[in-house]
């Protein structure tokens, strides 16, 4: 059956006899975590974000009283499931110290376990995606804010050059695999959220980066397989998700060397074009969808429409064909006020549907009112609508409706597996 999928992808990409990239779901309902990553899509959902609270930076209110925030409750996970989502990516701090001596952080592990269990109670599948850990702080992903809202003392990126930090990152994953192997909701471990050695060394062209840094610590290919091995030593079955450099960009995916380890999924983030998806609401928003947009590293705007968005999805599907392994989109989204946001995300996610690729949007916010203050954190809260000054839920706004309509196609949930996966008579996935 797997080669049938590969043939379909090849025909779609070649455009043979007018073929479209649409794939049809397998006849068999997935009865284990690995089957969920085969073409469907089977998983559609959203991200939940967690990090340490830093009172000096966050004040006493923004992300809650700490030590981790923003605060999520069972009601938040239940609300996500009630909207039709069946998958949550827990984008979280790793349960290890960032600075030497590298040691487990029981408080962070207990907090993550609570989040996973709440997702399970809400009948959501879970991927654990680690943002920070030994030699890498949360602020590495946010490094453009250095000198603006945080100082250099918060920025740690030693993991790319320090073998001790890399070994401790593997130890962290052994700990996580021991903790969550066999958990009925956990269907994936994402090794590192947005690997970004290229940005750290200031080389944004993949070919130039590998010409200079191949086989060094900055080369993710040289040491991510050791993390997979660490997980497999404790948990032989739960799928492992690996992202490329370039902050998990699909444009860096072709440079990621697949591993021979079992049950590996290759995952990307799709926010391009950033000039559009991350436009601030003032003073003006220059780009709207569909229309001309300035792409990364481009000097002139290019026309962006459904056909252009399909190109990124085709590249992802082509890698699936080459690597003979599943692919996924673990983050995608747009700031809620962008002109044409609902149409943009509709076209992007419908492309994922046609290629049978699982996807999760950024992000599902908790009912923590401080985030929705005018000076809060609500740019990606699609539940608030397109008006930047509107800070209350607007259930009928087009972007939220787009996500709900797609999530309604989900048919698989953890509870359907019962005590013994595959024991119950269960349906095939819904199609558009």
Write up this protein.
Strand 11 (327-332), helix 12 (341-355) and strand 12 form a beta-alpha-beta unit. The model is unreliable at 1-27 and 419-432 (pLDDT under 50). The protein contains 14 helices and twelve strands. The protein has helices spanning 2-14, 55-58, 74-82, 106-121, 163-180, 197-201, 206-213, 224-234, 245-248, 274-277, 306-323, 341-355, 398-407, 414-417; strands spanning 44-49, 51-52, 68-69, 87-93, 125-132, 186-190, 240-242, 264-270, 291-293, 302-304, 327-332, 358-361. An eight-stranded parallel β-barrel has the order 1-4-5-6-7-8-11-12, surrounded by four helices. A two-stranded antiparallel ribbon has the order 2-3. Strands 9-10 form a two-stranded antiparallel sheet. The chain starts with a helix and ends in a 15-residue tail after the last helix. The chain has one domain (2-417): Glycosidases (TIM Barrel). 32% of the residues lie in helices and 13% in strands. It is an alpha/beta fold and 432 residues long.
Topology, number of strands? 12
The CATH H-level superfamily is Glycosidases
Strand order in the sheet with the most strands = 1-4-5-6-7-8-11-12
End-to-end separation = 22 Å
Largest beta sheet, briefly?
8 strands, parallel, barrel
Percent range for helical residues? 25-40%
Question: Taking all residues together, what is the mean pLDDT?
Answer: 90
Give unreliable regions as ranges: 1-27, 419-432
- For the record, the CATH class is Alpha Beta
- The number of helical runs is 14
At CATH level 3, the topology is TIM Barrel
Number of domains: 1
- The SSE order reads HEEHEHEHEHEHHHEHEHEEHEHEHH
| Architecture per CATH nomenclature, i.e. the level-2 architecture | Alpha-Beta Barrel
What best-fitting shape do the alpha-carbon axes yield? globular
Radius of gyration: 21 Å
What fraction strand?
Answer: 5-15%
Structural class per helix/strand content?
Answer: alpha/beta
Quaternary status: single chain
